[in-house]
Amino acid sequence: PTEVKMQHSFRTKMASKLDLTLINDVMTGQLDLVNFKGAVNSQLMADIADRFWQHPDLALRDDKVPANIIGTNSFLKTAKQYFDDVTGVQQKLALLFDDIENPMDTLFDKMRGGLKAQPVVVEPSRQDNINAPACRVMSWLDQESYALQPHDDIAQIENMKSQNTQLLGALNNTITAFNFYLEVPKKGGELRVWHWQPTTDERKALDLAHSGYGYSNEVLSQFDYTDISLDAGDLCVFNGSFVHGVLNANGTGRRTIITNFMSYLEQDRIIYWT
Question: For the whole prediction, is pTM greater than 0.90?
Fold first, then answer.
């Protein structure tokens, strides 16, 4: 297998209620993952899931990642391609959350007032007067071993380095994934996080510099990992630079999430995107 430099410590915490201090700890590199159990009412989660599956614009992702989606992704896109796509999904998301709470919007409001002692700006990433959406909603499809192949969330932004985009500022801080769980399978579907944050050079050596997607079992066998079991209503917040994937549900149910990325741009300013 390709030799890699080092294994990293992976610091996790489980909480029984939402704690903004712990979110800030992940976003500032003091922790690597926090799972907030029962952060959102499970009935609200079920109602949003029903709307998702009945949505007239429900579609498969337009890249190599097998999932149903309402929304769009920055994965394998230039910044311009991403923001061009955004204009077509805002209305679809508005229909999904028409007259019902979007937990991500509620979280933004809480973070603005309670993340730090002073107010924090939480706003969409912008380009050419286009705002990134608050979230995307996705449901993974089982594959051979994983519902979502092992990947990191850094390569897709590093890939934009030759472009003039605000998103590059996120690389100076922790790119943090936020996942609300609408529904989970009866068995399987755990989030697996390997204790490894690949460097740019390591990604290049593995021919994954462009995507950061599809780390092989041969390479990953060199590292310890942590499996995170999740329930409907949970919020999982984690450092996206660690390689992570989703285990198969083996036909025991759907694994559907509301998700986005956030990062500090400045000490009192956070941007989000999908």
Answer: yes
